[in-house]
Amino acid sequence: MSKPKVLNLKDKISGNEADLSLCNLSDVPVRELSLFPKATVVDLSCNNIISLPPEFCSLIHLVKLDLSKNQLTCLPDDLGNLVNLQHLDLYNNKLMVLPVSFSQLRSLKWLDLKDNPLEPGLAKAAGDCLDEKQCKQCASKVLQHMRAIQEEYDRAREKRLLKEKELERKKEVKQKEREAREREARKREKAEEKERRRKEYNTQMAALAVQEKQKKKSEEKKKKNGQAANKKVDVKPAAKSQRSPIGWIFKLLLLLTLGIAGVAAACRLTDLQREEVCVPINAAVDGCLSWAKVQGGVVRQLLRNLSSTAKDLLESTQTSKN
């Protein structure tokens, strides 16, 4: 159905009452009603209102509210904010349950829930509302029923919160354990990395030491080889230069002697001795032999003289000692 516009809400207000019944409303004019806080009694009966907007709960000045004969299927969750509400008529709607905050309507004295498809527990608490007394009893018993639901809801909520806190605590414990494991793993990795770098450093230092040692040995070897080469260059050529003329002279004399001896032997022992070439050679050899014999006699006489002299000297020495 189309919603007729409320052109002038002032025409609907008389004193502290706002009569919006039979206006074919599907929505409640909350903004307009909030402009008239003195209108504490509002009649919205006999309309086509399906639900109340959340903003409706801001009309805390309401004392009496008539929503009978509408199409309400639910009430806003914050209905308990209407702390000044004393009279509430919900007759002939389509309500099955009431919001939990309904228990906060501590000023409520009168309530009518007839002709609503209420759930059994709520229907039993509401009872009939055929007169003033029953409607007051309905308000009292429904409030008690809703308070019990509120307490149960609070316990369930507290239990849920405790469970959530416990889960959060366990989650935090697991998180801390995971962080501790990660810290230990990072610490272990750092230690392993440090140990690996230390080994690499030691290996490098050892390799450098070996290279330095080899280099030192090589330099010493080169130095020794250089000194030996210098000695060979400086000493050997001089020695060789000093020995070379004497060696050549000795070799020449040896060769000459061997040559003369060979020629003499050939002229003396072979058939060449009759040759004219060998005659002077043989004569020279004979002369040499004769000279050698004479010199041999002289040497023997000299030796005998020396022996006699030595004997006389020895005898005189012994005599002097005696």
UniProtKB/TrEMBL annotation:
Superkingdom of source: Eukaryota
Start-end of Basic and acidic residues biased regions: 168-201
Keyword Repeat: yes
Gene3D superfamilies the UniProt entry points to: Ribonuclease Inhibitor
Topology of this chain in the membrane: Single-pass type II membrane protein
Pfam families for the chain: LRR_8
Alphabetical UniProt keywords: Coiled coil, Endoplasmic reticulum, Leucine-rich repeat, Membrane, Microsome, Nucleus, Repeat, Signal-anchor, Transmembrane, Transmembrane helix
Keyword Membrane: yes
SMART domains linked to this entry: LRR_TYP
Residue segments, region Disordered: 168-237
Coarse class of the protein's main subcellular location: endoplasmic reticulum
UniProt xrefs under InterPro entries: Leu-rich_rpt (IPR001611), Leu-rich_rpt_typical-subtyp (IPR003591), LRR_dom_sf (IPR032675), LRR_domain-containing (IPR050216)
Subcellular location: Endoplasmic reticulum membrane; Microsome membrane; Nucleus envelope
Cellular compartments per GO CC: endoplasmic reticulum membrane; nuclear envelope
Protein known as: Leucine-rich repeat-containing protein 59
Biological source species: Xiphophorus maculatus
